[in-house]
Design a protein that fits this description.
Helix 1 packs antiparallel against helix 2, helix 1 runs antiparallel to helix 4 and helix 2 runs antiparallel to helix 3. The chain has one domain: 23S rRNA-intervening sequence (de novo design (two linked rop proteins)). It starts with 11 loop residues before the first helix and ends in a 19-residue tail after the last helix. It is elongated, with a radius of gyration of 19 Å. Helices cover 68% and strands 0% of the residues. It is built from five helices and no strands. With 168 residues, the chain is an all-alpha fold.
Length: 168
């Protein structure tokens, strides 16, 4: 069972990563035909791995698996940056053509960092509130909130006791 509520498709990092994939494919089409099977393919492969790794992180049942999956996102973002630098140095793409992909990669990286920060803060709050019983309707509302943020299931009743006040 995933340590998170809801679907990974609701997460901002996952949705933003789809835009990154589209930008990678748009740029790759501009590469010379001779590079379609090599450097362009490597950029697309790295971009494609990002939403899959975010989904994988969401599906993990422990913090170690979560962190490992998101380390893969960071690795893929560095690969894209490196491949773009190589493509520019070889004259396959200009800085201006590569900029939209770099910008999207930066946005995805920031969104993933925010997700990690929210999850870490929520887990600390949950641990601090462990042992406190929650109430019905309020708890149901906070489960929906947790789902939208991709928060850990571990939060349980601690959400209904103010643990999310700093996340609004």
């Amino acid at each position: 069972m995933s340590m998170f509520y809801g679907s990974y498709k609701r997460l901002a990092p996952w949705r933003q990563s789809l835009g990154l994939v589209r930008a990678a494919y748009a740029l790759a089409r501009r590469f010379p035909t001779t590079e379609q099977g090599s450097l362009a393919a490597m950029i697309k492969r790295a971009a494609l791995s990002i939403p899959a790794r975010i989904a994988d992180a969401h599906g993990q049942d422990d913090e170690a698996g979560f962190r490992k999956a998101l380390a893969g996102v960071d690795e893929a973002l560095r690969e894209i940056d490196t491949y773009l630098s190589i493509a520019q140095s070889l004259g396959f793409v200009s800085w201006m053509r590569a900029y939209p992909l770099r910008r999207r990669a930066s946005r995805v990286g920031k969104a993933v960092d925010r997700w990690i920060m929210i999850v870490e803060e929520a887990m600390v709050e949950a641990e601090a509130a462990e042992g406190v019983d929650g109430g019905g309707d309020e708890r149901a509302a906070t489960v929906g909130f947790a789902s939208r943020l991709g928060l850990p299931r571990k939060l349980g009743s601690s959400l209904s006791h103010g643990a999310t006040a700093h996340l609004h």
